[in-house]
Write a structure and sequence with these properties.
Radius of gyration of chain A: 27 Å
Radius of gyration of chain B: 24 Å
Distance between the termini of chain B: 40 Å
Largest interface: A-B, 86 and 84 residues
Low-confidence stretches of chain A: 1-11, 340-352
Mean pLDDT of chain B: 90
Structural class of chain B: mainly alpha
Order of helices and strands of chain B: HHHHHHHHHH
Largest sheet of chain A: 2 strands, antiparallel
Strand content of chain A: under 5%
Helix content of chain A: over 70%
Structural class of chain A: mainly alpha
Oligomer: heterodimer
Number of helices of chain B: 10
Distance between the termini of chain A: 24 Å
Number of helices of chain A: 13
Mean pLDDT of chain A: 85
CATH topology of chain A: MetI-like fold
CATH architecture of the largest domain in chain B: Orthogonal Bundle
CATH architecture of chain A: Orthogonal Bundle
Chain lengths: ~350, ~290
């Protein structure tokens, strides 16, 4: 894509070719921009390495396996300057309750949030009157504009006091299920999951809308022409076609839920012992970092244990996001293939 | 309809029921938005009295606890600096992707990692900056506003890159080719044709990133935390609206909780204004 038109022979320059000096800004821009892109990648890699380095203190004192699979977040031993805190002996710190807390709240968020998000996406794209389509989508998107600290504020002063009775009645009604029965606390895994469900709703809904919008009109019309009702059309034409994309969207929501910090730390109760019901106080990996950071700053092992929680979050969300990309991309490819099968096999085959 | 195709009563009932369910689900999805906005105004407006916008939090145990002036100005400063870092960097990377990288291997690697970066939790960016800049007392101080800005800019960066790339791709290839055919060098095409054409789209993307960054608490908690009064020193701790809200929620004092509501209303209104401007900018766009 050089600007010179003719490649003159080995000797002099052609009439249209620029002198090397004139082409310098071009080179500078090209290499500068490439350098910028490389710089961003190197920066992230550098941060990652430093995070591993800072976490290694905790891992070497506690052991990687023990850290993640022991249910014992007993930080008093660190603060009282025991052998472990001074780095002179082994520690028995374990983050299992935090890891499980993260998984439980995220699971609750998905169970509540994804069906509502997908249903609203279906309604907005397939059922609602054309005029209200854009405003409705905008309103759902606005949920993403509210900062997490504001959701936390709302959760603490509105949701927790108002839902205490509702939580208890849920616990009583479904007491035959595991991890449900018993007394309820105000702040709980459930409230945390509920707030997360609200926060992932706009993301999942937006991706679902995008994916559903790619369903070919012909598929839908074919279903209707065969006598399907609107719902049957959605079930037989829209959902199968967009399943992979919606799954990817849900996974992106999961990644968001795992990493969400401030809203969760405010409403989950921050109790380091593993509760026996989802209606009791808990803790998550992200919440522990935000909540205990101040106390931990002075104790190297303690601080490092929090960095390890951050590392776990980073790796977990990275992993979830990579899988989510796979789904979205394979959904894309699957859709393209489906479209190719139906319409123009040779045309699409030719372009691939 | 039923003259052409006979639909059994059962199927019709299912259809009506499912349509109703989908509509109800959409209504449920909007309930939190309505409730959050209602409570923000209901509890936040009373806090907006007197000197709310003109005084700093004073930390007094009794009496008027002070307003949020330092928090508002701190947010503007921190986010302004973060924008100054993230937007040029992000547009630069997006330009590389659309103008030079295209389908090259390295470009797809960059694209992939930018995508993945979008999903990294904001608290992790805070930890990154804490480890690299705060622990080492870089710049002669531990916590500092500019470190908070860098943490927030890391978070904004993938948003700016993705949105800019989409907009730059919309610039018609014929415009670039026309400029090249007239003999303009590549850099001139970028500066005089590609960027001006996509300007309003770039502005929209940048504003959305700013709106996202402005509400973030977690990255600031580890980088800029620790000041109450107004300060112009970006090499020291600085107050910000999300930090002020986060602190005030955790206090067992009604007047502080009220201040949290007032500050939250201020923050949400600031973000909503950014959204409105962003939408207006995208509407003025020449290419979308």
């Amino acid at each position: 894509m050089q600007a010179n038109v003719t490649a003159a022979g080995s000797g002099g320059r052609s009439l249209f070719e620029r002198s090397p000096l004139h082409r310098l800004p071009d080179r500078v821009l090209q290499w500068g921009l490439s350098g910028l892109a490389a710089f961003v990648l190197i920066l992230i890699a550098y941060f990652f390495v430093r995070l591993i380095g800072q976490s290694s203190t905790a891992f070497s004192h506690i052991g990687v396996f023990d850290y993640f699979f022991r249910n014992n977040w007993d930080v008093a031993q660190l603060q009282q300057g025991g052998a472990c805190a001074r780095g002179a002996g082994p520690c028995t710190l374990g983050a299992l309750a935090l890891v499980l807390g993260t998984l439980i709240t995220s699971a609750i968020a998905l169970v509540i949030g994804v069906p509502i998000a997908v249903a609203s996406a279906l309604y907005v794209t397939e059922l609602c009157p054309r005029r209200v389509r854009a405003p409705l989508a905008l309103l759902v998107d606005l949920l993403a504009a509210v900062p997490s600290v504001v959701y936390g504020l709302w959760g603490v002063f509105v949701l927790i006091p108002h839902l205490k009775g509702f939580q208890q009645s849920l616990a009583n009604t479904f007491s035959f299920l595991p991890f449900v029965a018993g007394q309820v606390a105000g702040p709980s895994y459930f409230i945390g999951g509920l707030i997360l469900a609200i926060m992932i709703l706009p993301i999942v809904s937006a991706i679902a809308r995008e994916v559903i919008a790619t369903v070919p009109q012909e598929h839908k019309e074919a279903a209707l022409a065969l006598g399907a009702t609107r719902w049957e059309m959605i079930r037989t034409a829209v959902l199968p076609y967009s399943r992979a994309g919606i799954t990817g969207g849900a996974m992106l929501g999961l990644g968001r839920a795992i990493g969400e910090t401030i809203a969760v730390v405010l409403v989950i109760g921050n109790s380091p012992t593993l509760a026996h019901s989802i209606f009791q106080q808990g803790y998550t990996l992200a919440a522990v970092i935000a909540n205990e950071f101040g106390e931990a700053a002075a104790t190297p092992v303690y601080r490092s244990a929090l960095f390890a929680a951050g590392l776990a979050l980073f790796v977990l969300t990275l992993f979830v996001n990579i899988i989510a990309r796979r789904f979205v991309v394979s959904g894309d490819r699957g859709r393209r293939r489906a479209a190719a099968d139906v319409f123009a096999p040779e045309v699409v085959a030719g372009t691939e | 309809m039923s003259e052409l195709v006979r639909i059994s009563a059962r199927r019709r009932r299912t259809d009506a029921a499912m349509r109703g369910l989908l509509a109800i689900a959409t209504a449920i999805a909007l309930v939190p938005l309505v409730l959050v906005l209602y409570y923000l105004f209901h509890k936040g407006l009373p806090a907006w009295s007197g000197n709310f916008l003109t005084t700093d939090p004073n930390g007094n145990f009794l009496g008027y606890p002070g307003g949020v002036r330092s928090a508002i100005l701190g947010t503007l400063e921190i986010i302004g600096l973060a924008t100054a870092i993230a937007v040029p960097l992000g547009i630069g990377v997006a330009l590389y992707l659309t103008e030079y990288g295209k389908d090259a291997k390295f470009a797809s690697v960059v694209r992939y990692f930018v995508d993945v970066m979008t999903g990294v939790p904001s608290i992790v960016f805070g930890l990154f900056i804490y480890i690299v800049l705060v622990l080492g007392n870089v710049g002669g101080s531990g916590y500092a506003a500019w470190k908070g800005s860098i943490a927030v800019s890391l978070l904004m960066l993938p948003i700016v890159i993705r949105s800019s790339e989409v907009v730059l791709l919309l610039v018609p290839a014929s415009l670039r080719e026309a400029a090249l055919a007239l003999g303009a060098p590549r850099w001139r095409v970028v500066v005089r044709v590609v960027l001006p054409t996509s300007l309003s789209g770039l502005v929209t993307g940048a504003l959305l990133a700013v709106a996202r960054g402005a509400g973030e608490t977690a990255p600031l908690l580890f980088t800029a935390f620790g000041a109450q009064v107004l300060t112009g020193n970006i090499n020291g701790p600085m107050n910000a609206l999300p930090l002020q809200i986060y602190q005030d929620i955790q206090q067992a004092r009604t007047d502080l909780n009220t201040r949290a509501w007032g500050a939250a209303l201020t923050l949400v209104l600031m973000i909503l204004i950014l959204y409105v401007i962003a939408r207006a900018a995208s509407r003025r766009s020449r290419i979308i």
